[in-house]
């Protein structure tokens, strides 16, 4: 199986950063390939990571890291992945907010407010950087576009906002694009240089698990 190469770029001075992960299928063997990237007007630090999906032995990891200067501004992460379910199935699965902890690695609970169903309380629990990380926030789901877009923003707690977009690729597949924007919490300022690529890896893992979750939901009796 040919290796998948992940390309990650990091900013050294700009306060605004956009990264894009493209997960596509290899025309040779059908394996998913992740190609993250970012665009910035300033100089860029780069990391190259090479590995093979499904390989029995882990491929060597090659890195090239330059100096990083953390900037405490809003950070944007975008991950894209093509999954083998129709757009309507993917949209319905992602609309079930309380099910998100089943596939997103760092989300522990999501609870929809009974009297205000557009509001939900989220909690994040994850062990990383040698510490237990816990945050919570209240989020409002904005007006969705059925089978096209789900988006939200936090009202209190951890400042964040995001959107999920769905693009049909055929009768039985679609492209899911997840964008999460956040402010670096004060607790994580000491590890800010490592936070962005770490979150990117979590979002990639989350979408892979979402693809399996949506596929399983599609095969349940009564689901289309």
UniProtKB/TrEMBL annotation:
Pfam families in the record: Polyketide_cyc
Family matches, as Gene3D superfamilies: 3.30.530.20
| Superkingdom field | Eukaryota
**Which residue intervals define the domain Coenzyme Q-binding protein COQ10 START in the entry?**
83-209
**By what name is this protein known?**
Coenzyme Q-binding protein COQ10 START domain-containing protein
Q: Which organism is it from?
A: Nyssa sinensis
């Amino acid at each position: 199986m040919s290796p998948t190469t992940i390309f990650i770029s990091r900013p050294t001075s700009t306060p605004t950063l956009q990264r894009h992960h493209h997960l596509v299928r290899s025309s040779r063997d059908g394996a998913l390939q992740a190609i993250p990237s970012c665009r910035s007007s300033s100089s860029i630090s780069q990391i190259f990571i090479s590995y093979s999906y499904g390989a029995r032995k882990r491929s060597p990891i090659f890195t090239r890291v330059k100096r990083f200067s953390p900037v405490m501004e809003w950070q944007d992460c975008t991950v894209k992945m093509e999954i083998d379910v129709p757009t309507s199935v993917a949209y319905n699965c992602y609309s079930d907010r309380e099910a998100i902890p089943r596939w997103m690695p760092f989300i522990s609970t999501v609870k929809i407010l009974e009297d205000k169903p557009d509001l939900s309380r989220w909690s994040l629990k994850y062990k990383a950087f040698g510490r237990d990380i816990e945050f919570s926030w209240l989020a409002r789901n904005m007006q969705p576009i059925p089978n096209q877009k789900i988006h939200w923003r936090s009202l209190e707690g951890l400042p964040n906002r995001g959107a999920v977009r769905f693009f049909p690729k055929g009768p039985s597949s679609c492209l899911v694009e997840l964008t999460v924007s956040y402010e670096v919490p004060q607790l994580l300022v000491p590890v800010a240089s490592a936070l962005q690529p770490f979150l990117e890896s979590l979002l990639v893992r989350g979408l892979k698990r979402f693809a399996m979750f949506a596929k399983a939901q599609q095969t349940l009796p009564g689901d289309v």
